[in-house]
## 1
Amino acid sequence: DQQVKQNSPSLSVQEGRISILNCDYTNSMFDYFLWYKKYPAEGPTFLISISSIKDKNEDGRFTVFLNKSAKHLSLHIVPSQPGDSAVYFCAARGSGGSNYKLTFGKGTLLTVNP
Amino acid sequence: DAGVIQSPRHEVTEMGQEVTLRCKPISGHNSLFWYRQTMMRGLELLIYFNNNVPIDDSGMPEDRFSAKMPNASFSTLKIQPSEPRDSAVYFCASSLGDFGEQYFGPGTRLTVT
């Protein structure tokens, strides 16, 4: 049972346009959400996160939106740059005894075309 | 800052052989995680250590898998005997505490033929 879902395996956008990556979750115990970025032959690197007490968090060109009622979050990148081309993973963490555990989606491959 | 170091980067072995993957976490980090990435299941947590003690090994798929952390600067993940379905990329990550940002190593790509 996949608790974190990224339904789009890939996304292609033009340089300078907005990239929107989506993520849905099913576990209502999740209260902290993260996005990781992964280049080929490297490990994932942390990009941005959001707590369930917020609905938006912004860091430069990256903004994450959280809609708790819909159990949906999205990552907006604007403007998109060719260097943003990578696989993006959505991850979620719950409260309580297993709060160390990140549950990951399968990732979305973003390609930004020059 | 050297980051999380994993070795080897690539491993090709035959079914039935023992495989040992190695990880050196970031100095000062007291939490260590082993993940496996496959096409079917994505990134999944195998085992979590805190202060060198295994806290959660519920993700370890079978008894063929074992992990140790003899000290704060070294961990191993061993598969014995290996099977073709173990082929995957194995990542090690470390963090400062449970809630700290997890820093991932570059991964070990394992191929079992």
## 2
Amino acid sequence: DQQVKQNSPSLSVQEGRISILNCDYTNSMFDYFLWYKKYPAEGPTFLISISSIKDKNEDGRFTVFLNKSAKHLSLHIVPSQPGDSAVYFCAASAGRDDKIIFGKGTRLHILP
Amino acid sequence: EAGVVQSPRYKIIEKKQPVAFWCNPISGHNTLYWYRQNLGQGPELLIRYENEEAVDDSQLPKDRFSAERLKGVDSTLKIQPAELGDSAVYLCASSYEQGNYEQYFGPGTRLTVT
């Protein structure tokens, strides 16, 4: 039973355009959401997070949107750059003492 | 600042053999995590340490897996005996304090069991 779902295994976007990665969750107890980025042969690196009390969080080119009623969040990357090509994991937690649940990841390809 | 160090990076063993993975977290990070990442999946938590205490090992298959963090710094994860289904990447992560969502991951150990 997957609690965090990333339904798009891969996504290709032209350099300079917007990349939108989507994530759905089923557990209504989740109150903190994160995005991690992973390059081949490296461990995931933290990218951006959002608390359930917010609906948007921005950090430079990266913005995460949270729609609690739809149990959906998305990561927007604008503008997309070649170095953004990586696997992006959506993750969620039900509290600071609870474990983080990861989705399966979406592989983003930025096309020249 | 040095990152999370893991060794070995790759390991190939035959089934029923033992294997051990080592992790050295970022200096000063009290919380250490071991994750397993199967092909095409996200990381799944195996065990979490706060200093030398295992505070969440509910996902650790205790019949064959064991872990230790004796001095509250580096940690070892062991599998004995290994099974074919244990083939995966084993990731170690650390964070400064309990509940800190910003976990820093090591590069992982890719285990292949033949």
